[in-house]
Amino acid sequence: MLRLYDYLPSGNGYKVRLLLTLLNIPFERVELDILKDETRTDVFLSKNPNGRIPTIELDSGEILSESGAILYFFADATPFFPEHALDRAHVLQWMFFEQYNHEPNIAVARHWIQHLGLDDNRQRALPERHKGGYAALAVMEKHLATHNYFAANRPTIADIALYAYTHVADEGGFELDRFPAIQSWLARIAGLPGYIPITKS
Amino acid sequence: MLRLYDYLPSGNGYKVRLLLTLLNIPFERVELDILKDETRTDVFLSKNPNGRIPTIELDSGEILSESGAILYFFADATPFFPEHALDRAHVLQWMFFEQYNHEPNIAVARHWIQHLGLDDNRQRALPERHKGGYAALAVMEKHLATHNYFAANRPTIADIALYAYTHVADEGGFELDRFPAIQSWLARIAGLPGYIPITKS
Is pLDDT at B192 greater than 80 in this prediction? Predict the structure, then answer.
């Protein structure tokens, strides 16, 4: 069976769990506690030299990592990845935006506050993460003010990628009530048939 | 004609320039100086609300941003994006790795040293960027010790994405002579027919 190396609080892991569940693809989870460096063991590094979850292992033994690449792999030829070339590129555009502009600010602020704790260094660095995170949320809000979804007028893996850390941004100290279009969109994603919350295995 | 909003020193812009040139796709460049906030004008923000280059504008007026998404759009159905599903996902895996683990360390260190200058804050933050950048280079070196290219046994947009900032990593204070497999791979990419250097428009 498809194996997902995962860490339950991770939004990056949740993206994969959520898509696989929406697609009714069975999988087994292997929980690795990143706070205990369980992704840095020799065994795991032999599978993913970058030492990160989510990583998947196919029945063939082949390995794939990076949440965006895993989403693409399973969504291709499903309704979660559109057919037309420019629509597909727009899906990837928002997924790269998420990994570059959104996750390093919003997910990292959440990880610091919820898991690592705010020592002096992190406390000093937090305003810069909040500034970057709010800038990303503003870009999303502007788009969602005139679109129901991020690309192709339908829910795609761009929405799944952006939903994962946006819907728990309050855990990183972000005030989502400033963003009404984002809130409506979050409700649309949470209403998808087969939706699961972030902590459900 | 296809229009590329660009900034010549940008490795992200160079990725697009390099691929379009390798594919013999004509384009016109619009140079925007990011140091003068020329990507933050109302006119440009109406095209890309995220205010970043590279951004392309098609003849139809449609807009696409994020270097990885632009590479995908033009490489699909060419030899630079493979056919098989898992190969394609591996290409994207390395492209997401580049944007998350590589660029924020190696490109940012280069941008600080070459363009913004090392004030006290950046001087204090530089070791963390070097640590992250060297970790990314080590992951690349490990892969390239047993592979000529990053995916599908051929040059793909994963190589183009990773080449852009790796080949100028010395400008960010990184010592590439520690990484012999990376150096051989850099020479293979620079030998591709149609190759252009980063500063050529």
Answer: yes
Residue A77 distance to chain B (closest CA, Å):
10
Q: What's the confidence (pLDDT) of residue B199?
A: 82
Residues of A in contact with B83 (CB under 8 A): none
Neighbouring C-beta atoms of residue B176, cutoff 10 Å: 16
Q: Name the minimum distance, in Å, from the CA of B131 to any CA of chain A.
A: 14
- Asked whether residue A16 is assigned to any structural domain, the reply reads yes
Say if B122 is an interface residue toward chain A (CB within 8 Å): no
CB contacts, 8 Å: B85 with chain A: 73, 76
- Does any domain span residue A11? yes
Same domain, A70 and A89: no
Q: Does residue B201 surpass a pLDDT of 70?
A: no
Query: What's the gap in Å between the CA of B188 and the closest CA on chain A?
Result: 23
Q: What's chain B's average pLDDT?
A: 97
ipTM of the complex: 0.97
CA-CA-CA-CA torsion sign (A122, A99, A161, A183): positive
Per the structure, the complete domain to which residue B52 belongs is given by 3-75
Question: What is the reported pLDDT for A190?
Answer: 98
